[in-house]
Amino acid sequence: MPQNITINLPIPPRLNSGLAAARDRNLEWMRRQKLVLGHSAARRYVFSAVADLAAYSYPDAAGEDLDLAFDTMGWFFLFDDLFDVPEGRTADEAVDVCQQLIALITHPSPRGADHAAPLVSAFADIWRRARTGMSEEWQLRAAHNWVDYLSGNLTEEIDRRTWAPQDFATRMRIGHRTLGLIPSLDLAERVGHFEIPQIIWHSSHLESMRRAAVDAVKLINEVMSLENDDARGDPNLVHCLMRQRDCSRQEAIRVAVTLVQAAVSQLFEQVRRTPLFCSRLGLTSTEADKVQRYATAMFTWIRGSYDWSRNNGRYSPHTASALSPDVTGQLHPANLAPVSP
């Protein structure tokens, strides 16, 4: 079973001590935002433990910062699930929500969070809280990254309606946008109360580090969710490897695990060169420390995504079967438990 697959990672595991209390507060927030309605939906949401990812990925966050991380992770998964529709159907509701979200970010309404779709009004709340205390430069960069994530989801939906790319490289490239790790790293700055200098964020050095981190997290997600995807008939990068290499399922899983470890090794090597990078730019010790914290956030996310995947209730064929949309095609997130990555 993929959830029992061991991936050796030279990164120590961490877990936020405030998980239990933050989990309860997050459920209340989901209810207030009308994303989880009724006892049955609440049980499913708690069982899936999607928001718990925040406790693994932001182990030092506390109070309102931890709540923001939990709410963002919970929102991420419910938004993603809106695109999961039965074969032969189009995700029209998801596309509409996605377009509303892009409009919210690029042309914010003076009416604030007065939006029809619960996912949109919930995001408006998250986005307002995320921007608090952050510089205008960070806000512009974070807005750009959110729009890229949302646009990537539209790309996937268009591909699904026409012909979904079957090759590994193309699906990885799209996955870099739809994984949501880049906005999540922006969030690491926000809940960590630091900002890396704007010009540094655009450097090739940090871009290479982010690419390695996204590769690792994306492949971990694909391996750990494989049985869930199989149960739902959803595509998975392991399937791409099987076709491309003409190999068995187990061989493809081993290749994916090797690719994860290679990406982590690459990130370690890039981080090893970071002091020289900072020195050549003439960064102060404070600025260099912020770059190091950003790198640490990447390692934490890689390890956190792996540990969370092994412990949550989301990635199992039983979950996919039990919680799949009913034959009426009802897709309102309040009636769906998160069941796929």
Characterization of this structure:
The two termini are 17 Å apart. It contains 17 helices and no strands. Helix 1 (19-32) crosses helix 4. The protein is globular. The protein has helices at residues 19-32, 38-48, 53-57, 63-81, 92-106, 118-131, 136-161, 168-178, 181-192, 198-201, 204-224, 226-232, 237-245, 249-272, 274-280, 285-311, 317-322. By secondary structure, the protein is mostly helical. The longest helix is centred in the C-terminal third of the chain and has 27 residues, at 285-311. 68% of the residues lie in helices and 0% in strands.
What key attributes describe this structure?
mainly alpha, disordered C terminus, 17 helices, 0% strand, 341 residues, globular
Quickly describe the structure.
The protein is mainly alpha-helical and 341 residues long. It has helices at residues 19-32, 38-48, 53-57, 63-81, 92-106, 118-131, 136-161, 168-178, 181-192, 198-201, 204-224, 226-232, 237-245, 249-272, 274-280, 285-311, 317-322.
| Rg of Cα set | 19 Å
Tell me, what's the shape? globular
Strand content: under 5%
Estimate the mean pLDDT confidence.
88
Helix fraction, binned, reads: 55-70%
Biggest pleated-sheet summary: none
Number of contiguous helices: 17
Computed structural class: mainly alpha
Unreliable spans: 321-341
Number of distinct beta strands = 0
Query: Helix-strand pattern, N to C?
Result: HHHHHHHHHHHHHHHHH
Q: Terminal Cα separation, in Å?
A: 17 Å
Please write out the topology.
Blueprint: H1 19-32, H2 38-48, H3 53-57, H4 63-81, H5 92-106, H6 118-131, H7 136-161, H8 168-178, H9 181-192, H10 198-201, H11 204-224, H12 226-232, H13 237-245, H14 249-272, H15 274-280, H16 285-311, H17 317-322
Helix pairs in contact: 1-4, 4-6, 4-9, 5-6, 5-7, 7-8, 9-16, 11-14, 11-16, 13-14, 15-16
